[in-house]
Amino acid sequence: MNEIEQMDQQYVFGTWSFQKNVHPKQIVAAEGVYFTDAEGRRYLDFSSQLMCSQLGHKNERLNRAIQAQASKFAYIAPGFTCEARAKLGKKLAEITPGDLCKTFFSPGGTEAIEAALMIARWFTGKQKIISRYRSYHGSTCGSIALTGDPRRWATEPAIPGILKAPDPYEYRTVFGSVMKTLDYIDEMLTLEGDTVAAVIVEPVVGSNGILVPPPEYLPELLRICHKHGALLIADEVMSGFGRCGEWFACDLWEVVPDIMAVAKGITAAYLPLAGTIVNEEIAAHFNDNFFNLGHTYSGHPMTVAAALETIQIYEDEQLIPAAKRKGNYLLDKLRQLQARHPCVGEVRGVGLFCGVELVKDRKTKEPFDEYGVKVKGGPSVLAQATGKALAGGVYMVGMINTLIIAPPLIISEAQIDEGLRGLDQALSWVDTLVD
């Protein structure tokens, strides 16, 4: 490691890791779908960093919008407003599904989920929340309690009142059909009585494997929730703003949740911003009931200006329909790789949000890595596979047993092919480990 990397290792905590294993790579430049390290090595960003850099790097138009706001003023307290914040609130009401109409702004996705949890409890007067096992909703006490994946283990017991349900994971379901998991949730809501405030789901599961439900799943889940007097919260932190080839993943099935949490793509990660957006009934509730939430940086002028321009860029450059078209191209190419590599158990995805699940044996679907290997500190084939790809000049994220292929929306088909060549090389290495 160079001096900067050593300094960072010594004085800064690495996230989600045993600190002795943290070896940060210094990045010195980034532009378009590429970024460059201190040694001059260039990498294709095939996962949009953490599935958030929708516009790629160094977008000059977005940079100018941020600079323009900074030249006016960088910060005012959230009790004031500014032109960009008001216009962004109105714009979100226009582009989000149905009657979602009013937004609480927060610094990041975790806080947006915390806000959704609290709003659901205050509005319904009930405390319990149902989430799913293969989910990630954030790292604070409330959001990590909602999270299902192994990263929650170290924080438990967390906040009370959180119940877990099965997932729409067709490849590994023990229910025969993922639609039967909705019968399970229906039964949970019945047996819990009228005590459940909401069910929270990622419409397309992100970190836990890019799980795309069948078309009838989310509409039926919404019906079940409302039958039992529970709200539906959609965590669109990762799946929103064109990632799935629509403004939001809920739009794929014309579902209008009661509460939606957004982040990441709202500013294409140029500045940290998130939002919790509620429907008209919930918004009206707080006219005469105290809204007990606030952040120093809620609706920070710099961040809302960035978001407003980001959304305008999505529209002007027609990046969302392009993501659908490019996503079809990407999925087709990934399935061709699947046919050539025995280590690929399944390819799945929608838009530019795809997953490649690795297995030791296609017949048994045995995974390479033990569930929870990341938090247990054992050796990981998935981590080695992403390391092989990075050494070949392609950056991609791996979670659980799935490689996440989610490039910036601006990527070209030629650049997709470049990323696939790096993936191909990594998969060839994994093939040598197949039983």
Walkthrough of the structure:
- This protein is α/β, with parallel strands linked by helices and 435 residues long.
- The protein folds into 2 domains: 3-58 and 319-431, Aspartate Aminotransferase, domain 1, CATH 3.90.1150; 61-316, Aspartate Aminotransferase, domain 2 (3-Layer(aba) Sandwich), CATH 3.40.640.10.
- The protein is 37% helix and 17% strand.
- The strands form 3 sheets. A 7-stranded mixed β-sheet has the order 4-10-9-8-7-5-6, with helices on both faces. Strands 11, 12, 13, 15 and 16 form a 5-stranded antiparallel β-sheet that branches. Strands 1-2-3-14 form a 4-stranded mixed β-sheet.
- The radius of gyration is 21 Å and the shape is globular.
- The two termini are 36 Å apart.
Give a quick set of tags describing it.
Aspartate Aminotransferase, domain 1, globular, alpha/beta, Aspartate Aminotransferase, domain 2, single chain, 5-stranded antiparallel beta sheet, 16 strands, 2 domains, 435 residues
| CATH-defined superfamily of the largest domain | Type I PLP-dependent aspartate aminotransferase-like (Major domain)
Outline: globular
How much of the sequence lies in strands comes to 15-25%
Main β-sheet, spatial strand arrangement: 4-10-9-8-7-5-6
Q: What number of structural domains do the residues give? A: 2
Q: Uncertain runs with pLDDT below 50, 5 residues or more?
A: none
What is the tally of beta strands? Answer: 16
Quickly name the level 1 CATH class of the largest domain: Alpha Beta
Q: Which radius of gyration do the C-alpha atoms yield?
A: 21 Å
**Averaging pLDDT over every residue, what do you get?**
97
Helix-strand makeup class? alpha/beta
State the distance separating the first and last CA atoms: 36 Å
Question: What proportion of the residues is helical, as a percent range?
Answer: 25-40%
Secondary-structure arrangement, i.e. CATH architecture of the largest domain: 3-Layer(aba) Sandwich
CATH topology descriptor of the largest domain:
Aspartate Aminotransferase, domain 2
Contiguous helical run count: 14
Largest sheet: 7 strands, mixed
| Element string (H = helix, E = strand) | HEEEHHHEHEHEHEHEEEHHHEEEHHEEEH
